[in-house]
């Protein structure tokens, strides 16, 4: 722009100079000098035309440069918009990455918690499995012990008839059922000699196996009793108590192992509507079972953490 202004000033000065020279030549100088002046004027005019062309060219260049500058500005603005859009996209991606990292952390924590719960559950399962194995071992041991008791009692009482006594296993216990005709006279709680002999055989097994607990249950039929005892409750209790005394006093069975009870007519083995059924119901059950202290302790022990 400065060059253009200088060129305009130069053209103006040249024109002024030409006018002055022309005036001087027409007024004062001869023809030869006038011709020289004309040549000089023509040269100046040519220079002026050249300068004008240069000015025009400069204007065109300036216009082109302005156009290029405008295009460049538009390109820069477009790139700025693209950069802003990319920055926004990057910000969105960073937010997505942050959200994904949070989700990964949450999943990792959840996985860690589940792994901890799984480990705990597995340990609990192993503890339960171990406990079940211990229980099974104790139950197997108890079953074997019960079978041993049945065998020993059967061998000890082998000399007695089946209508006098029986040995069986019920509800995980050994039942030695002694009929009234072996133990007592009718309506009495006094044990007869043969009954006492049977109790002596039974006591030998009990004393040789101190871990056996003894429940003695007296039972009667449904026929009301008359005489010494008020009713069948009293008779059944008196009979079980009589057997306890013989076992503990005469045969030295530990009294702490023995429990006596009477059930009267309310736990019959057979129907009370027939003589045969009533005969079977008039019995004394001596119920034998191994001590279950170890099993009870295991059942009452809380699960290991």
Placed side by side, the strands forming the largest sheet appear as: 1-2-5-3-4
Q: What is the overall shape? A: rod-shaped
Summarize the biggest pleated sheet: 5 strands, mixed
Strand content: 5-15%
Number of strands: 5
Low-confidence parts lasting 5 or more residues at pLDDT below 50? none
Mean pLDDT: 86
Helix content: 55-70%
Distance between the ends: 93 Å
Rg, alpha carbons: 65 Å
**From N to C, what is the helix and strand string?**
HHEEHHEHEHEH
Which key terms come to mind for this protein?
305 residues, 68% helix, single chain, alpha+beta
Layout of helices and strands, plus pairs?
Blueprint lengths: L1 H27 L2 H126 L8 E6 L2 E7 H4 L9 H16 L3 E7 L13 H19 L7 E5 L12 H7 L1 E8 L2 H8 L5
Parallel strand pairs: 3-4
Antiparallel strand pairs: 1-2, 2-5, 3-5
Tell me briefly what this model is.
With 305 residues, this protein is of the alpha+beta class. The protein has helices at 2-28, 31-156, 180-183, 193-208, 232-250, 275-281, 293-300; strands at 165-170, 173-179, 212-218, 258-262, 283-290.
Description:
This protein is an alpha+beta fold and 305 residues long. It has 7 helices and 5 strands, in the order ααββααβαβαβα. It has a 5-stranded mixed beta sheet. Strand 3 (212-218), helix 5 (232-250) and strand 4 form a beta-alpha-beta unit. Helix 1 runs antiparallel to helix 2, helix 2 runs antiparallel to helix 4 and helix 2 runs antiparallel to helix 7. It starts with a helix and ends in a 5-residue tail after the last helix. 17% of the residues are buried.
């Amino acid at each position: 722009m400065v060059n253009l202004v200088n060129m305009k000033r130069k053209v103006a000065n040249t024109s002024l100079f030409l006018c002055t020279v022309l005036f001087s030549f027409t007024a004062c100088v001869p023809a030869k000098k006038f011709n020289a002046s004309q040549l000089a004027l023509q040269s100046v005019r040519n220079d002026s035309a050249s300068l004008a062309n240069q000015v025009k060219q400069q204007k065109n260049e300036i216009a082109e440069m302005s156009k290029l500058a405008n295009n460049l500005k538009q390109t820069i603005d477009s790139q700025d918009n693209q950069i802003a859009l990319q920055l926004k996209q990057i910000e969105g991606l960073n937010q997505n990455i942050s959200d994904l990292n949070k989700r990964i952390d949450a999943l990792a924590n959840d996985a860690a918690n589940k792994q901890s719960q799984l480990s705990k559950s597995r340990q609990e399962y192993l503890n339960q499995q171990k406990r079940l194995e211990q229980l099974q071992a104790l139950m197997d041991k108890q079953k074997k012990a019960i079978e041993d008791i049945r065998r020993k009692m059967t061998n000890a009482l082998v000399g007695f008839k089946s209508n006098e006594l029986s040995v069986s296993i019920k509800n995980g216990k050994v039942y030695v059922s002694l009929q009234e005709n072996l133990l007592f006279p009718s309506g009495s709680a006094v044990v007869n000699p043969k009954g006492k002999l049977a109790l002596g055989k039974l006591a030998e097994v009990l004393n040789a196996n101190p871990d056996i607990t003894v429940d003695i249950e007296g039972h009667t039929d449904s026929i009301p009793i008359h005489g010494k005892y008020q009713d069948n409750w009293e008779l059944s209790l008196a009979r079980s108590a009589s057997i306890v005394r013989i076992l503990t006093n005469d045969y030295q069975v530990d009294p702490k192992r023995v429990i006596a009870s009477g059930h009267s007519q309310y736990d019959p083995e057979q129907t009370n509507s027939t003589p045969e059924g009533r005969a079977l119901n008039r019995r004394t059950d001596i119920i034998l079972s191994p001590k279950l202290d170890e099993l009870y302790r295991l059942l009452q022990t809380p699960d290991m953490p």
